[in-house]
Amino acid sequence: MPRSNHKARTFLGRLPLPERTFVADALRTETVGGMVLLAAAAIALVWANTPLSSAYESVRNFRFGIEALGLHLSVAHWTSDGLLTIFFFVAGAELKRELVIGELRHPGTALLPVVAAASGMLVPALVYGLVATSLGGTWNGWAVPMATDIAFALGVLAVISTHLPSALRAFLLTLAVVDDLGAIIVIAVFYTSTIYLPALIGAVLGLALFFHLHDRRQVHGWYWYLPLALVIWGLTHASGVHATVAGVAMGLLLRVAKDGESGRRPAERIAHLVRPVSAGVAVPLFALFAAGVSISGDTWGEVAGNPEPLGVALGLAVGKLLGVAGGSYLAVRFTRARLSADLVWADVVAVAMLAGIGFTVSLLIGELAYPDPAQLEPIKAGVLLGSLTSAIVACLLLRLRNNTYRRMYEAETADQNADGTPDIYQQGNAEQGPVPERAERSEAGGGGDDPPHSTGDEPRR
What we know:
The chain is mainly α. It contains 17 helices and 4 strands. The protein has helices spanning 17-48, 53-61, 75-100, 107-134, 150-160, 166-190, 197-216, 222-239, 244-252, 266-290, 297-305, 307-335, 345-354, 359-369, 373-400, 402-413, 423-427; strands at 10-11, 63-64, 73-74, 338-339. The chain has a two-stranded parallel sheet with strand order 1-4.
């Protein structure tokens, strides 16, 4: 049998310069948003555990909106169904870009992170089920520990000031993007009880019009799309499907091919503009009104003593570690890939531990799985405990290797000739060879409102 004509694939090798620049731009905003998210979660916990807790409940349960349209909702409901739609819109745009021009474009490149992400969703669900059912509980919350909160994880990295290499940050971002897609599929399939068909048909027609204007006619101007997006969102909400599905659907419909006139990719540009709203406003406000859990000895006792909350906590803290690290190892082992020479498996374990920070999407799914507030509060406490445990252990593991990460970071960013392209990308290496062309914008020189542009073969859309 003839041997394959291409060399062994490298897992977590150095990113191509355009991809590294894009990832750095995306994660820079998410890191700032993560700091805001941490602050919002802390405020919620303090507010809910002081004499002002009654005011917190009053604000969270305050209802407003247009009752005739079925939109007379509580503040908590507006933040989960409304603001998180923006978060899922950005996730959809990022996924579309990754599938068309990013690291997920080629099956061989996509296989390893997708296997790791899929395993990182399946194993936490199984851990939850084994723990909950063995202690007399139910499978109701199996989907709660499946997701990774990229903003919260990056906020933690910022707090401990680690210099995590770009390949590991990109891996974490890919895990989160695939997790978000898995979460929205779970929400659409398992948490949709009744369907109002006329509203659903209207939402689909609205999406078709969105696609026609954006992709076929290439109509520009936010004033066309914002009213249309609100109509699509309202119809999706009225249909019985969770309204956040509308966000990821619109994100996936964005065009990735470069505009002829400007040379910009609409999916990148729009995600670049909307991401600060998502990371800095939408997600923190959701956290503010979702993370307010009463913290006491009784609360932690309820987590340890009840099967479902304990299953959620262990699903995040243990299931994510086993799923992501185990899935990564098996994928590398059976595809005969090799881990980057600059990294060791302890680095993958640390990132897998960091992926156990579920928070935002876990809280959202928890609210859908447990509509009864009496059942929901222990589940939220389980999410907080599992995420906090994952964050602390990940911090300890990452700090042990931080000197190595710092050296890698300095090598990645060194630009002694100040030409805007890191020196390491001009030298080439054994794994990737020299870069054939300069990125259109380097991480150090990126500014203004436009995101960096990718290179490579042009996709159809």
